[in-house]
Amino acid sequence: MTSAPRIVGISLVRNEDRFVDRALRNVLDFCDELHVVDHASTDGTPAILDRLARDAPHVSVVRTDDPRTSHDLIAPYAGRPVWVFGVDGDELYEPERLDRLRARLIAGEFDRWWTVFGHVLHCTALDVDTGIARGHLAPPARSMTKLYNFAAIDEWAGAVPQRLHGGTPRFREGYSADRRLAVFHEIDWEATPFRCVHLCFVPRSSLDRAGRSRRNVSESQRAGVLASAYSALRGSRWKQRKYRTGPLVEQRVDGFLRPAPLQVRAAP
What we know:
The chain has a single domain (about 5-255), classed as Alpha-Beta Complex (Spore Coat Polysaccharide Biosynthesis Protein SpsA, Chain A), CATH 3.90.550. The strands form four sheets. Strands 3-2-1-4-9 form a five-stranded mixed beta sheet. It has a five-stranded mixed beta sheet with strand order 5-13-7-8-14. Strands 6-12 form a two-stranded parallel sheet. By secondary structure, it is of the alpha/beta class. The chain has eight helices and 14 strands.
């Protein structure tokens, strides 16, 4: 008898004290395990993560100076009936809709796919009081959701600067890198169970300056002197190019912001 799949969350954060508590609490009931890697935060993030780990026994927190630690934590799941879900401190998902997605994942509906991409609102402004967000939808912008079927691979090897980026997955028979399901080709933003408010253009830390988007780890590692100077002034050039695509729209996002009741899972 094949065991039911598990959902393992992996989060790599650095100076995320504005939204990380909501981002992680929104996925607590979706994940059977949630590994959080704090990459040398200097704002209020460590205290927030400590409180979260006390509240939820299926959450583990690791502090490190090396973001590759986030990959080391999930590499052992290769070849096992596990969906690995990457969630960042600037990504808000809706607990209510994730409940529906979880039921479908556990039932095996998506087992033939290697990765599933959801809808995204790349947010340029968020009014928490009114529940209104402004930004660019994916599609037509790029989706950056990270939900991977680790039963499809024997290993994820090579140079991996952070979880779920870079390296070379070695696929099992019947799977390949092109086994990608983009749910936004089948249903719209209002109907999807898998959608994210991506706060990539909103300050994420009490230390951040307004109007600047950060580079991710991979982008920082390959950036030269000129790119670094540009980022210091204007933010991530890559994010500007990929995520500011299509019309600027407004959406109600109350479901992403409502406190979700904490249904505590046992520690794995």
